[in-house]
Amino acid sequence: MSDLRRTVGAKLLDLMPEPVFALDPSGVFLFVNRAAARYLGRPVGQIVGRNVREIFPPEQAERQLEVIREVVATGEPFVEERVTPIGEEKFVFHYAVHRIEGEGGEPVGVLGMVRDVTALVALERCYAELYERATDALFGVDQEGRIRVLNRQAELMSGYTRERLESLHFSRVVPRDEVDRLWQFFQARLAGKEAPTEYEVRYVHASGEERWAEVHISREASSVGAFQASVRDITERKRLEALRQEFLHIIGHDVKAPLTVIQGFASALCSGLYGDLDREQSQCVERILEASRRVRDLMEQFLLAERLGDGECWPPRPAPARGVLESAVAGMEAVARERSVGLTSSCTVDPGAQVGDVEGFKHLVDNLLSNAVKFTPPGGSVQVRLDQDADTLVLQVEDTGRGIPPGDRERIFERFFRASNAGGAPGSGLGLYIVKRLVERMGGSLDLESAPDRGTRFTVRLPVVRPGSEPPSESE
Q1: Element (H, E) at 267
Q2: For residue 50, how many other CB atoms are within 10 A of its CB?
Q3: SS3 for 87?
Q4: Does 224 score more than 60 pLDDT?
Q5: 3-state class of 104 per DSSP?
Q6: Domain 2-122, architecture per CATH
Q7: Which burial class, exposed, middle or buried, applies to 279 when counting CB atoms under 10 A from its CB (0-12, 13-18, 19+)?
Q8: What is the CATH number of domain 134-233?
Q9: Per-domain residue ranges for the chain?
Q10: How far apart, in whole angstroms, are the C-alpha atoms of residue 275 and residue 268?
Q11: pLDDT(108) > 80
Q12: What number of other Cβ atoms are within 10 A of residue 215's Cβ?
């Protein structure tokens, strides 16, 4: 039975992909598997029975014998990582040696195993280099909340040296009023509970200045025992957001109020409320009134685009679509006549067919009509159709204008983008952005067909809202 065990054991060792060998206390090879023979570059028969001094160079052989003597004497396993030159290449090996004992417990030799970890070490070095050179600040935090590893960008962002940050608790670089919130997130994540993995937080720079950061926490535990955090400084973005809010406030209040006064008095002068005006005076006042209207329209478009971009809009209110369309067309007829553009409309929807967001639908139709009339030359035409296909409203606005160049169509719905053939036509580049955002808000779809100098057709499909049902939302 013992012979069978030895035979089976030898066969199993021979099948192992790692080099395995046995030596007596003097350093003579008693056994090597096939992988060890390949590793040593000799047939098994030229290895077994020979001393390590006959196989390895003198320096390596003496080191091998030193390890064998130490393991045989102490019984303690020996493990180390070695860099071994083979030919013109260098390989990295994990080298492990254990003592072999006889039936009476006496040491009879050692059993060793070698594992080639060259590729693994190269991968680890590559990962470490990528980690160090990452454009985001990276932190590894242990289960106590202490920073254990970080990269160069983390030093640059925080203003601290690596030595100063390592082992520092994260609460030392976060304002007091933020610590409790972050600690709750951290503890919940450690306990396997739901907690945000992305959030914005204030942090304290080494200079003492409070700044803003965007933090992404990994969902899985890292090698340091807790989590990896990817951090990006967003202080400048926050400052720009504050400036934008201040600018919106100025436009919405400090500009809108005096503009309303200008329009009011200009309208009063045009009406003759303060006496008759001669021809030149009347033309001047009309230009003032027209310019103030254009400023007002630009301002309203800008404010509407900002509200849609921020998702801070009016609550949707359903209403019959037919009435909204007729009102919008009637409001555009005077502008179309002034530009000598024919404007026709048709509506075949059921009288009770409702659109989910009456205010949004009004803005949508107004912007499509205004855009079509603006870019259609005198003598051209604009057609508006509103049809119903089962539970879908289909709005089409088609013009015979200059069209949209093919290279501009992918960007035509971007904020502030204007087609390359827009020329000197007045506008902010916000109209079609607003249209797209409104269609998304109402759960619809938007299609564009256009050919240069042959016109453009926009097709909007929106769900019909039944009385008593919830209007569709952007997220649906």
Answers
A1: helix 256-270
A2: 14
A3: coil
A4: no
A5: coil
A6: 2-Layer Sandwich (3.30)
A7: exposed
A8: 3.30.450.20
A9: 2-122, 134-233, 238-310, 319-463
A10: 10
A11: yes
A12: 20
Q: State how far the Cα of 131 lies from the Cα of 129, in Å rounded to an integer.
A: 5
Which pLDDT band, with edges at 50, 70 and 90, does 221 fall under? low
Read off the tokens for 196: 């945000």
pLDDT over 50 (residue 1): no
- Collapsing DSSP states into helix, strand and coil, what is residue 93? strand
Predicted local confidence at residue 475, as pLDDT: 45
Name which of 460, 457, 453 is nearest 435 in CA terms.
460
DSSP letter (8 states) at residue 192:
T
Q: How far is CA 58 from CA 64, 67, 131, 376, in A?
A: 10, 14, 40, 92
DSSP state of 276: -
Which of 35-49, 123-137, 445-459 bottoms out in mean pLDDT, i.e. has the lowest? 123-137
The reply to whether 134-233 and 319-463 are identical in fold is: no
Two structure tokens written together for 219:
């969902």
CATH of domain 319-463: 3.30.565.10
Pairing of strands 342-347, 381-389: parallel
172 DSSP assignment: G
Instruction: Give pLDDT tens digits for 347-380.
Output: 998 888 899 999 999 999 999 998 899 889 999 9
**Both tokens of residue 122?**
């190269």
Distance of CA 141 to the CA centre of its chain: 23
Average model confidence (pLDDT) for the chain? 85
Greatest Cα pair distance, the chain, in angstroms, is: 128
Q: Six-digit token pair at 231?
A: 């951090």
Give the E-state strand segments of 174-318 in sequence order: 198-204, 210-217, 227-233
Q: Give CA–CA dist 59/27, Å, rounded.
A: 14
